[in-house]
Amino acid sequence: MNDSIVSYLSQFPAYKSFVSAMSSAMGFDAAGIATLLVFFVACFVVVNVLALVGGLGTYAERKISADIQMRQGPNRVGPYGILQFLADGVKMISKEDLMPRNADKFLYTVAPLLCLVGVLATLAVLPFSSGFTLTDLNIGVFYLLGVSSLVGVGIFLGGYSSNSKWSMLGGMRGASQIISYEVPVTLSILAIVVLGGGLSFGTLVGAQGGLPHEWFVLHNPFTFVAFIVFFIGALAESNRAPFDLPEAESELVSGYHTEYTGMRFGFFALAEYIEVFVLCGVAAALFLGGYKVPFNLGTGEFLVNTLNVGPLLASKVGNFLQLGSFVTKTLLLYYVVIWCRWTFPRLRVDHLMVICWKYLTPIALVNLVGCAVWMWAFNGQSLFKIVFGH
Amino acid sequence: MSSHSLDVYMPIVILMSFGVVMLFGALLVGKLIRPNNPNQLKQTEYECGEEPVGVAWSNFNVRFYLVALIFIIFDVEGALMFPVAAVFKKFNEIGEGGIVLITFLLFISVLLEGLVYCWKKGDLDWIRSFQGPVTGPSTDNDKDAK
Q1: What is the per-residue pLDDT for B139?
Q2: Which of A1, A324, A329, B93 is buried most deeply by CB count within 10 Å?
């Protein structure tokens, strides 16, 4: 059981010799410093890769929307326009930085920061694979729900501080929408926690298997509905269409970031795209088996038993397979999110609240009761296991 | 890992500081290359090309407070259910699942009762409409109706 990337790495002899070399060079036990160093490098890699994913997300969004609407999409910068996001970034950095004269200067600066920090902090517990998880906190899911609320605060402050009516309306809508949809999301995650028996992502993913019938989404009818509730709630929490009322351009100009220019706006957009990836990752981890690979390929047991590979090498290969499995599922969900954006019309604000409080919340509550009763009545066995007996 | 138990929280601090560095780093780099010639018009708020009227910080609809209040109740109860949900499986394995289930269901029924109460009171309706006999001074329209 790895509870962080350091404990995964510490099983390799290279890491041990690295630590001992550092200790002898510095004259004291350098294990703590080595831990810090490894965490720093790992976080650096994760942040950069995710920033790239966020950037490519904007490109993918435009390409897929073009595909859906039978257009070309960006095709000038680089092959097939793939460098478009870099051009956008350069443009945003070189734009003049305007701040409304009557704005609350401190909050105006802090708002995109809160969005970005809230999203980046969720990356700490995202289970990329059993070894490559930055840290597998024992309160993982709870932590994720808490930290991702910072995004809502950032959006509200962004709308409030600009002192523009459009921003204010967008910020208020954003705040009420995000907090409302947090309730069904929390309740549908609770249903999974009941079945998984723990709050850490390691436990919850570990309770599932590699093949679809071992995933929580097909565990029983209630979890299937919980997945749909979670997915709708996640769309609303990340302000993605059809729930993009805080930035509805046909009514609110561009909502909470109307007054933001250049890179400040860029960070709002970046935070949104990374958040979509994170929420898709959470959906994949909790419902779609996460990093599990079929036939024990991920743990390396298969490689050790059949091909006589050394256990350490097998564990490395297995971790990369797990990473591939997780990323594939997440990107497929990402595609579905973009697909939803370009096929569904935007909701009306009163319908939004009705869907959340009168449909999703009662459904999620019933699901929770159903999962708890299922857990007690069938001892946590999946429907497939009960029907087919294995 | 008991002596290093706080180590696992290190990435959170590192990631958050990366966020701060990214934002202010990009703004600092931008400061070197971007133009800076502000004028009165650029610094007004956008109001569709008209002169802005008043400030945006005025009273807003009370519905938002209601949503926030309902959210707080539900979120706190959801947070309190997490520990019970987390240990449910362990209790089930040693055959004590029934008592946990009853506790759980009791708690959920309180939550459900709150939802039903809000629903009945009409607090879940975004557009409130007043139904019932009109009390208070009658208007000209009422007289016409009679």
Answers
A1: 54
A2: A329
CB A124 within 8 A of CB A172: no
Contact B9 A160 (CB under 8 A): no
The ranges assigned to domains in chain A are 96-388
Chain B CB within 8 Å of residue A226 CB: no
What's the N-to-C CA distance of chain A in angstroms?
26
Cβ-count burial A180-212 (b if 16+ within 10 Å, e if not):
bbbbbbbbbbbbbbbbbbbbbbbbbbbbbbbee
A309–chain B nearest CA distance, Å: 29
C-beta neighbour count of B59 within 10 angstroms? 5
pLDDT digits (tens, 9 = 90+) for B34-64: 888 888 888 888 877 778 777 778 777 777 8
Q: Are the C-beta atoms of residues B56 and A164 closer than 8 Å to each other?
A: yes
3-state secondary structure of A193: helix
- Do B8 and A4 lie within an 8 Å CB cutoff? yes
**B90 → chain A, closest CA residue:** A197
Which segments of chain A does DSSP mark as H helices, in order? 5-9, 13-26, 31-68, 84-93, 105-122, 140-161, 165-196, 201-206, 221-237, 249-252, 262-287, 301-307, 311-341, 349-354, 361-377, 383-388
Beta carbons of A133 and A282 less than 8 angstroms apart: no
Please state, in angstroms and as integers, the Cα–Cα distance from residue A156 to each residue in A150, A347, A354, A367, B115, following that order.
10, 20, 21, 31, 26
Give mean pLDDT in consecutive 10-residue pieces for chain A, a chain of 390 residues: 71 78 76 80 87 88 89 85 87 85 86 90 86 83 88 88 85 87 90 87 84 84 90 88 77 81 86 90 88 74 72 78 88 90 85 86 89 84 77
Instruction: Parse chain B into domains and list their residue ranges.
Output: 59-121
- Cβ atoms of A230 and A287 within 8 Å: the answer is yes
Within chain B, how many helices (H) and strands (E) appear? 4, 0
Quote the pTM value.
Answer: 0.87
Pair of tokens at residue A2 = 């790895």
